[in-house]
Design a protein that fits this description.
Chitinase A, domain 3; 440 residues; chaperone; Trigger_fac_C_sf
Length: 440
């Protein structure tokens, strides 16, 4: 056997494998002998059928099987020994139909090679690192929401801007028949508001779903329609009013504080606001970190230039999935995935160059932390270590879940590395301004 590599350019090469009879013939002979021992043909004793008959019936199929085994093993071993950094998988170069009656065979495989490049962690344009703060306005609003959530619902005769209205939405054609409680404050549009303000129990309002709420997800909740059906939904509905109420806010006193914090850690409005601020800014920090990682990713991809074996990758994408793609479909798929591939290469290089590794024990600990937080949401604040270990083991046996947790942990490690190595422009702002600036 002879294996050679011909470099086409820095990103493309062809591996040629020449196979001779000595590479596969012993296994072919052994399989033929096994076939002969088991073959039972009338007129011959079992195991005594002439080898010529056995060869005529089985030899070609066995040769094909053994040559393919030798080919695959030798290709895999060669690529491993040469330590080639490949993109995609080797693609066999198509030839005219092989003559399987020959004793020597030659095969060629196209391979795509990963590019060589350097990563600059100090780009000319700095990334912004946001510090999101909970403003006094946000804290006051959240206190009001808590008071409303734990307050009493008092019936009133007619609805005003602060009323809550319970009723049933109906549209027979769309099979909508859903009871819902909505706040008049959630209603969008002056004409719609006129219909709700002054309404009483027993009134039937004729409404249009389009523009009824500023948030279409609120419309989905109110009508009970599927998520995919609510966007752009424009149908008439009737709304029959069953109850009109107003919320009497819960007083800001010990009874409410103890409902919220049974450990007695909150005894005043200021302490309540302090807890709200702490929890809110923890959540804001997570969002800011995710935005920072996204911004760093965009920056690295934009400022790290290298070529890719585009034609090879498009050809490989045609056969990489379960469904064969056309040339046009593969080209479109490449355009969608190119940016992600570039960042994968950049991420891999950063991790190799800076010895950033992921140990299995770290993944187990991370999985346990994730499980612990999930259990806390259901009131189990102190799960036993054995229980955590058992659940983590089951979760990590699921390949999809394990890969998801691994990706999250790698992101955490990389973000910590970036924060240490990259200088950012810092900006402090409210959550509302953060949303406007980042997701405008």
């Amino acid at each position: 056997m002879n294996i050679t590599k011909q470099d086409i350019d820095a990103l493309n090469a062809v591996v040629k494998i020449d196979i001779v009879a000595e590479d596969y013939q012993a296994n072919v002979t052994r399989q033929l002998e096994e076939k002969r021992k088991k073959t039972d043909i009338p007129g011959f004793r079992k195991g005594q059928v002439p080898m010529g008959m056995i060869k005529k019936q089985h030899e070609k199929a066995i040769v094909i099987e053994e040559v393919n085994k030798v080919l695959q093993n030798s290709l895999n071993n060669y690529l491993a020994q040469q330590k080639l950094d490949l993109l995609g998988n080797p693609l066999p170069k198509m030839k005219d139909e092989l003559n399987w009656d020959a004793e020597e065979f030659s095969f060629e495989f196209e391979i795509g090679l990963a590019p060589k490049f350097e990563v600059d962690l100090a780009p000319a344009k700095k990334v912004v690192q946001y510090n999101i703060i909970a403003t006094d306005e946000l804290l006051d609003k959240e206190v009001e929401n808590i008071q409303a959530r734990f307050g009493n619902q008092l019936p009133v005769e007619t609805a005003d801007d602060d009323a809550n209205i319970t009723g049933t939405f109906v549209n027979e054609e769309k099979e909508i028949n859903k009871k819902a409680t909505i706040s008049v404050k959630e209603i969008s549009g002056e004409e719609n508001l006129k219909k709700f303000v002054g309404a009483k129990v027993g009134d039937v309002l004729s409404l249009e779903t389009k523009g009824l709420f500023a948030d279409e997800h609120k419309l989905q909740e109110a009508l009970g329609v599927p998520h995919e059906a609510v966007h752009g939904l424009a149908v008439p509905v009737s709304f029959t009013i069953d109850a009109v109420t107003k919320t009497e806010p819960a007083p800001l006193e010990k009874e409410l504080f103890d409902k919220l914090f049974a450990d007695g850690s909150v005894t005043s409005v200021d302490e309540l606001k302090g807890k709200i601020k702490e929890d809110a800014e923890k959540q804001f920090e997570q969002q800011a970190d995710q935005q920072l990682l996204n911004a760093i990713t965009e920056n690295l991809v934009e400022n790290t230039t290298f070529d890719l074996p585009k034609e090879f990758l498009q050809k490989w994408l045609q056969t990489a999935g379960q469904k064969q793609l056309t040339i046009e479909e593969a080209a479109a798929e490449y355009e969608k995935s190119e940016k992600g591939l570039r960042y994968q290469l950049i991420e891999g290089k950063i991790m190799r160059d800076n010895d950033i590794k992921l140990e299995y024990a770290e993944l187990v600990d991370y999985a346990k932390g994730f499980i612990r937080s999930q259990m806390a949401q259901f009131g189990n604040m102190n799960p036993e270590e054995k229980e955590l270990n058992d659940i983590a083991a089951r979760v990590l046996q699921n390949q999809e879940e394990a890969q998801k947790l691994q990706a999250q942990l790698i992101s955490h490690k990389l973000l910590a590395f970036y924060k240490e190595k990259i200088t950012f422009d810092s900006k402090e702002l409210s959550y509302e301004d953060f949303v406007k600036e980042v997701y405008k």
